[in-house]
Amino acid sequence: MPSPVSCSGNDLIASAAQEQSKASMGIHERLQSVQAVAERNADNIGILTRSSQCLPPLAERLAVLGQAFHGKAGTV
């Protein structure tokens, strides 16, 4: 017959404290991961904003080139 397991109040409290500590560490690690993702997103938004500011002049140039191309195609 197996020996009885001691489950005094102190043992239960210690066990619960260990479980809570493990859970807290897991939550902390996940929060750090979420923070890192948020920081990368913020960096990417800055890059996207700067890149999108380059689009209007490129669109205008494309329109001019398209008109020039169609004008030349009509004279052939």
What would you note in describing this structure?
The chain is mainly α. It has one domain. Helix content is 86%, strand content 0%. The protein has two helices and no strands. The chain has helices at 9-52, 55-75. The N and C termini lie far apart (102 Å).
Coarse shape: rod-shaped
Number of strands: 0
Which class best fits the helix and strand makeup?
mainly alpha
> How would you spell out the order of helices and strands?
HH
Helix count from the secondary structure assignment: 2
Q: What Rg do the Cα atoms give? A: 32 Å
Oligomer: single chain
Overall number of structural domains: 1
Helical fraction: over 70%
Q: What is the CA-CA span between the terminal residues?
A: 102 Å
Largest sheet: none
Properties at a glance:
86% helix; rod-shaped; 76 residues; 2 helices; single chain; mainly alpha
Summarize the structure.
Helices cover 86% and strands 0% of the residues. It is mainly α.
Topology diagram in text:
Elements: H1 9-52, H2 55-75
